[in-house]
């Protein structure tokens, strides 16, 4: 488990960096969507809440897991941190970020099957594989990164190489939904009790929120507007 002080420090750094970049954008006279700022604040609140949460048992561990590795990555993806960085960072930093975005690694990691496997696989390793305690922190970091990557591919406004259409993304979300549900049932069968139930119900809430974001963004993109024809494939 990641120490609480480290989570609080990460929340403070994330909030300071995001608000600082947004402030530079506003000083230039540019605008930034309020919804993205709200998502960033929500991600920070989720991480800070996990850092402040007293961990006394399996239920508390599940709460921290849900906040840090599921809710915070979704909100972070919705806040579009990469787009904000590209609009406010110095030229050298922007060039480095673009190199990473166009690299083979980025193209591989953002492929939908890869992002889906990373998102679902980390959970099973964390809960079912006897990983040494010293590696728990690294595994949590992996799950946060995988959750953000998966959410960014599905619903994030940041640029993603070869983002697939709505149907493959919806199918990937169903796969992760099922994987989380099966894992929760396995843990419950092994005596997980309230912690396994919380993992199931809490995971469902985050995944339903992801589905709302996914189909909401799709609807905004394809809804009929005056003077614009609707593509037959979008009907």
Q: Overview of this structure, please?
A:
With 235 residues, the chain is mainly α. It has one domain. It is 76% helix and 0% strand. The protein contains ten helices and no strands. It has helices spanning 4-27, 34-52, 58-78, 81-88, 91-101, 104-109, 112-128, 136-154, 166-189, 194-222. The longest helix has 29 residues, at 194-222. The protein is globular and about 55 Å long. The N and C termini lie far apart (46 Å). The model is unreliable at 230-235 (pLDDT under 50). It holds the Pfam family Caa3_CtaG. Keywords: Cell membrane, Membrane, Transmembrane, Transmembrane helix. It is a multi-pass membrane protein.
Strand element count: 0
Mean pLDDT: 90
**Low-confidence parts:** 230-235
Q: What's the tally of helices?
A: 10
Instruction: Give the domain tally.
Output: 1
Helix-strand sequence: HHHHHHHHHH
- Share of residues in strands: under 5%
Proportion in helices: over 70%
Shape label: globular
Oligomer: single chain
Radius of gyration: 19 Å
The major pleated sheet works out as: none
Distance between the termini: 46 Å
Structural class: mainly alpha
Features:
235 residues; mainly alpha; 10 helices; globular; disordered C terminus; transmembrane; cell membrane
């Amino acid at each position: 488990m990641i120490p609480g002080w480290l989570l609080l420090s990460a929340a403070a750094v994330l909030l300071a960096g995001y608000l600082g970049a947004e402030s530079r954008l506003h000083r230039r006279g540019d605008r930034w969507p309020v919804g993205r700022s709200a998502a960033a604040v929500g991600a920070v609140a989720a991480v800070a809440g996990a850092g402040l949460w007293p961990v006394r048992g399996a239920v508390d561990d599940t709460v921290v897991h849900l906040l840090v590795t599921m809710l915070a990555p979704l909100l972070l993806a919705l806040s579009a941190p990469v787009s904000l960085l590209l609009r406010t960072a110095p030229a050298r930093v922007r060039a480095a970020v673009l190199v990473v975005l166009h690299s083979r690694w980025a193209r591989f990691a953002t492929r939908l099957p890869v992002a889906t496997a990373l998102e679902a696989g980390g959970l099973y390793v964390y809960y079912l594989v006897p990983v040494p305690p010293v590696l728990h922190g690294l595994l949590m970091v992996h799950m946060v990164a995988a959750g953000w990557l998966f959410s960014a591919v599905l619903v994030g406004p940041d640029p993603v190489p070869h983002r697939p259409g709505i149907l493959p993304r919806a199918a990937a979300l169903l796969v992760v939904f099922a994987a989380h549900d099966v894992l929760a049932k396995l843990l419950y069968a092994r005596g997980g009790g309230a912690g396994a139930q919380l993992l199931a119900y809490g995971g469902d809430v985050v995944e339903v929120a992801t589905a709302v974001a996914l189909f909401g963004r799709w609807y905004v993109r394809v809804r009929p507007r005056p003077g614009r024809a609707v593509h037959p494939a979008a009907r």
